[in-house]
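User: Hello, beginner here. Can you help me understand these amino acid letters and fold codes? It all follows right here:
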Amino acid sequence: MSSSTIALNREARHEYFIEERFEAGIALEGWEVKSLRAGRLQLKDSYVVIKNGELWLLGAHVSPLPTASTHIQPDPTRTRKLLMHRLEINRLIGAVERKGFTIVPLAMYWKQGRAKTEIALVKGKQAHDKRATLKEREWQRDKARILKGGARDG
């Protein structure tokens, strides 16, 4: 994990087939930026919805720092607007409406001092797909171990 990465959604790679990735900006409040700099973000149960031709991030949990201002009431799971070019948004809307895709966030990171969200167009995996993926990963690991000469028969 590089130093610019704020949080990863590892569960998404397990739950979905990732078809296409996009980068989106995110509209944040001041206290949220401070919390993100402290790494207080969880993307596990978050997803993206389309409302009125705009993308919104739901379910992302930004824990407020104890030093957050006294005159605001921080809402850790508030709906946050994602910022993308109109053509990209239209492509995503078309894929979600016509082909049955879902949009989920994969990661959040810093890029030139701004928080960016990596979102992906995904299709859900069935239970047998998840098992096959796990089996393939274990086989790749075992294969690397064998090729390296580290396999020991007991």
